[in-house]
Amino acid sequence: MSSPQVLLLIDASPTSRAALTSAARLARQQHGELIALFVEDQDLHASAGHPFTREISALSGESRPFDRETLLTRLAQQRHQIETMLTELDRDAPLRWRLDVVTGPVFESVRAAAQTADWVVMGKTGWSAGHGARLGSVARRLLESGCRRLLLWQATTESEMKPAPRFGRSTARSVGRATPALSSPMAADRRAPIVALLTSPQTAETVVLAAHAIAVATERPCHLFMRSGIDPATLPSLVAWRQEGEPPLVLELIDARSAEMAAPPDPSLLRTLQETRASVVVLAADAGTVTGRPLAELIAEIHVPVILVPSATP
């Protein structure tokens, strides 16, 4: 049986650098292989072949020549930066990884590579991060293509998923309507937990599995928001999680009225996600329907990294 594969769409952008740390940590936790995919956009190659092509600086607005030699030099510099970053991963802990460099259309290249990956990791915004975009074009197209693989969107370098400091156990207590599965160090740990939204019985198990994997990989507590109509006892991974007691878990029932099949979408769920402290938000692909928002817009409105799990098992 082959080991899990974590596919990382990588370049030299700030969000890609941040996503690399998260992807490496996830690959180690899954005892899998990290595959860094660097796509040299064929459209850039074609554009650089024309003598009249010029590029405009996003900072100064100045126009300058953009020839093939400039492009090749820049791509070589990016590959060198990426190789350096990958080599430095072994300083933390041993990791199996490889760098795949392909020339072609970016979206099609990523989608083809994602067919055999267990996780797909990429920046939400890539190079557009500094210009107000909240969801990059490749991320949006992957989202809209119905890609059935699990996707992790890393938002910013500030949200890099690092292990939380360890604290001793405290006495278990109830928090509002939430029921802790065990004693939780959340009060002592000021860093935000993993937050997951369980929207339907069909996707709940997959969401719990993803949330657990990230919680283990980042050594963070987890807060699960579960809509009524979902029976926790029918979710094997949740039952096992509560029995094992690690990582710390809080399960909270929400949205009792809109759980009925005939109920309209509930936009208040988006407010719940936006107002809850989170390091990462885990969603199923049906979350857009539940909240009454197109899925791409929903993800763009969540200002922390987002993990999207499929509505159906691949």
Task: List the main descriptive attributes of the protein structure presented here.
11-stranded mixed sheet; 2 domains; 314 residues; Rossmann fold
Short description:
By secondary structure, the protein is an alpha/beta fold.
Describe, in plain words, how this protein is organized in 3D.
- Residues 127-133, 155-161, 163-189 and 258-262 have low confidence and may be disordered.
- It is built from ten helices and 13 strands.
- The chain is an alpha/beta fold and 314 residues long.
- It is globular.
- The strands form two sheets. Strands 5-2-1-6-7-13-12-9-10-11-8 form an eleven-stranded mixed beta sheet, sandwiched between helices. Strands 3-4 form a two-stranded antiparallel sheet.
- α1 crosses α6 (201-218).
- It has helices at 14-29, 42-48, 68-87, 106-114, 137-144, 201-218, 236-244, 268-275, 287-291, 295-300, and strands at residues 5-9, 33-41, 54-56, 63-65, 96-104, 119-123, 150-154, 179-180, 194-198, 222-227, 249-254, 280-284, 306-309.
- Helix content is 34%, strand content 21%.
- The protein folds into two domains: 5-157, Rossmann fold (3-Layer(aba) Sandwich); 161-309, HUPs (Rossmann fold), CATH 3.40.50.
- α7 (236-244) links the parallel β10 and β11 (249-254).
- Residues 163-183 are annotated as: Disordered.
- It holds the Pfam family Usp.
- Residues 6-144 form the UspA domain.
State the helix count: 10
Oligomerization state of this entry? single chain
> Any idea how many domains?
2
Radius of gyration: 21 Å
Low-confidence spans: 127-133, 155-161, 163-189, 258-262
Count all strands and give the number: 13
CATH topology of the largest domain: Rossmann fold
What is the top-level CATH class of the largest domain? Alpha Beta
- The N- to C-terminal Cα distance equals 17 Å
Strand order of the largest sheet: 5-2-1-6-7-13-12-9-10-11-8
Domain UspA: 6-144
Protein name: UspA domain-containing protein
InterPro entries: UspA
Region (Disordered): 163-183
